[in-house]
UniProtKB/TrEMBL annotation, chain B:
Pfam families: ABC_tran. SMART domains: AAA. This is ABC transporter ATP-binding protein. It comes from Maritalea mediterranea. One of its GO terms (molecular function) is ATP binding. Residues 3-233 form the ABC transporter domain. It comes from the Bacteria. Keywords: ATP-binding, Cell membrane, Membrane, Nucleotide-binding, Translocase, Transport. Belongs to the ABC transporter superfamily.
Length: 288, 359
């Protein structure tokens, strides 16, 4: 005999309350703002989907979104192969392992605004180590406050410096979990180094790489602090990424309605791309 | 075909792991490496496969020196204790993988895979991935890869150790058939003396990184040439005791003595070691010459059709293994009988004694 009652719901309640306060309620507040206009004084006017329509037609939004995708694409295409390459060249046993791991983890431990400030000073043309070296020793004109290309190169190098470690550490974890027997089997099969990479290391790293790419996509797509401190979105609007633009609209112009609409679309895009990527990557596993 | 080891040595950081080893492993029969875990079986296989560097000595394959040759260039196969298959490839692709690397024609690959799959009954599973197979099927897939490759040497490193009992017996029966008539040198590492006896061929007894004895399996089972060899080739562990020979008589402890055979009576008087397998120490008399030993029973085990007893007699521990169920009382004295004709006799340091090859 099975006794049935509804007491189990009480066990779910704490989680429901927690999720409500840290996700649902703030999110619904944003939804609330996104369909209204306010001028303060707690006065609200119904606007319907106006802000969404305006935003989707806005040149400024398209430009920021384009820059955001370009930025994320560039850092992924550099960080992922670079991270795998570094992970593969790290020792897998011996006294150098902890040393390498600590060195790799260091950039990730630095607060984000400090990273921005560090690179800002580092690249100053007159006193920054890199800026001075490029301008006065190598004679390459480099000033990221003036030159769009230099600004982009700088924020990308900064991100690569800051976050390649994440890909390295995750790939490394995947690599060390491969039993020695697989390498031996491949050697005995007569496989080349490339075949070992392609048929043993890469498949074994697939799961951790999926997570690494997903994390790097979400983080870089939402990046704010470092480019804000480093370039402030300039020169002009050339490095105004989505989140920087969003803050400008919300806090600079105090357009809470359009900013809320933009937040929701921003969130939807992040969610959609993450979901698509994750589904594609794990499609095979589900089937088998 | 033959694989010849000439003074092969392995060192790790100055410590010798494999002492100079000389073996001639031929095709046509199984070459069993028998020894406990840590005896150096896997190390020796890795040296032969080129997975670890050989510190000293030469490795000859059909007379050709392959000591420094890379593993990739050697035409060999290796089947591990745990099942190593490429996880994202199907069974077919797994079996075909070593062939694809050689650039073999597709039709020939298919033929060879099919043949190997037939022998190992993997035909219905060719399109599955390894994780969809049972342990036994996964290991059969690994074996099929070795067979399809038709390599000169096949190393089987305790391939049945991780299988359950029934499968192990089944596959063990099939193994000699699988490789019969294929002309490959088959090297089979195991820690079970029984397995060595079942597989026949030749056996190399290994302990502490050295080969204690090498020869036809039945011969070295019957006539181990050292205490070490006798110890390795016995399960449960062999009984060892010291005795003193004076004239024709052997005396063990205070009150056990027996008359030696003519052959052994010729040995110099002195102290020797005897070794006798547990199944020759029985709770009943088998021969007129059987030597009674009275001992206090310490532990007893019943395993269906066999009874074993650990007992203490004259400060030495003994093990008896007898067919049938024998009611021993733990803590009580019991009479056992040792068949002196089944004893091996060695010098005190475990070395063979002159002219003695008794069974």
């Amino acid at each position: 005999m099975k006794t049935e009652n509804q007491k189990a719901w009480f066990f779910v309640l704490p989680v429901l309350i927690l999720v409500a306060f840290n996700a649902l309620i703030p999110m619904m507040t944003v939804v609330n703002y996104s369909v209204q206009e306010t001028f303060g004084d707690n006065l609200f006017f119904w606007e319907g989907l106006t802000w969404f329509e305006n935003l989707l037609r806005s040149e400024r939004f398209h430009a920021a979104l384009g820059r955001q995708f370009l930025f994320t694409f560039l850092i992924l295409i550099i960080e992922v192969p670079l991270g795998i390459a570094i992970a593969m060249s790290m020792p897998r046993k011996g006294i150098w392992v902890p040393f390498c791991l600590v060195i790799m983890a260091l950039p990730m431990l630095i607060p984000w605004n400090v990273v921005g400030a560090m690179w800002n000073i580092f690249t100053l043309p007159d006193i920054g180590l890199m800026g001075y070296f490029l301008n006065h020793v190598l004679g390459i004109s480099y000033d990221m406050t003036q030159n769009v290309f230099a600004a982009w190169v700088t924020i990308i190098i900064m991100d690569v410096w800051h976050w390649t470690s994440l890909v390295v550490l995750l790939s490394y974890a995947g690599l060390v979990s491969i039993p020695e027997a697989y390498y031996q089997a491949a050697k005995i099969d007569g496989a080349s180094n490339f075949a070992v990479f392609r048929f043993i290391q890469l498949p074994k790293m697939k799961n951790v790489l999926t997570i690494a790419i997903l994390l790097r996509f979400i983080d870089s797509f939402n990046i704010y602090t470092e480019p804000f401190v480093l370039t402030g979105g300039g020169p002009g609007n050339s490095t105004t990424l989505l989140s920087i633009d969003l803050v400008k609209i919300a806090l600079g112009q105090f357009d809470l309605g359009p900013a809320a609409a933009m937040s929701l679309i921003y969130f939807a895009i992040t969610l959609l791309v993450s979901w698509l990527f994750y589904t594609l990557m794990t499609k095979d596993d589900v089937r088998s | 075909m033959a694989l010849e080891l000439q003074n092969i040595t392995k060192k790790v950081g100055g410590v010798t792991h494999i002492k100079p080893t000389n073996l001639v492993l031929e095709s046509g029969h199984f070459n069993v490496l028998l020894g406990e875990t840590g005896a150096g079986k896997t190390s020796l296989i890795k040296l032969m496969a080129g997975l670890d560097p050989i510190a000293d000595g030469q490795l000859l394959m059909d007379g050709e020196d392959v000591t420094g040759q890379s593993t990739q260039k050697r035409n060999i196969s290796l089947v591990h204790q745990f099942f190593v298959n490429y996880p994202h490839m199907t069974v077919f692709e797994n079996i075909a993988s070593p062939l694809k690397v050689t650039g073999m024609a597709k039709s020939e690959i298919e033929g060879r895979v099919e043949e190997a799959a037939n022998i190992l009954q993997l035909k219905p599973m060719l399109n599955r991935k390894p994780h969809e197979l049972s342990g036994g099927q996964q290991q059969r897939c690994a074996l099929a890869r070795a067979i399809a490759k038709q390599s000169k040497a096949v190393f089987l490193d305790e391939p049945l150790a991780n299988l359950d009992y029934k499968l192990r017996e089944e596959l063990r029966e099939q193994l000699p058939e699988l490789f019969a008539g294929r002309g490959a040198i088959v090297v089979y590492a195991t820690s079970e003396p029984e397995e060595a006896l079942l597989l026949g061929g030749k056996t190399a007894l290994m302990q502490d990184g050295q080969v204690a004895q090498f020869g036809p399996t039945a011969d070295i089972y019957r006539t181990p040439n050292s205490l070490m060899a006798a110890g390795i080739f016995s399960d449960p562990p062999i009984n060892m005791a010291e005795f003193t020979k004076t004239g024709r008589m052997a005396h063990m402890g205070r009150n056990i003595s027996w008359e030696l055979s003519d052959e052994r009576a010729g040995l110099k008087d002195g102290v020797y070691k005897l070794a006798i397998r547990p199944h020759h120490v029985l709770p009943y008399k088998t021969d007129a010459a059987s030597v009674p030993i009275v001992g206090k029973v310490l532990v007893t085990e019943l395993s269906g059709s066999e009874s074993s007893a650990h007992f203490e007699a004259d400060m030495a521990n003994w093990v008896s293994l007898a067919r049938g169920i024998h009611p021993y009382q733990v803590g009580e004295n019991h009479q056992f009988f040792m068949d002196p004709n089944q004893c091996f006799i060695f010098a005190l340091d475990g070395a063979p004694v002159g002219g003695d090859h008794h069974g």
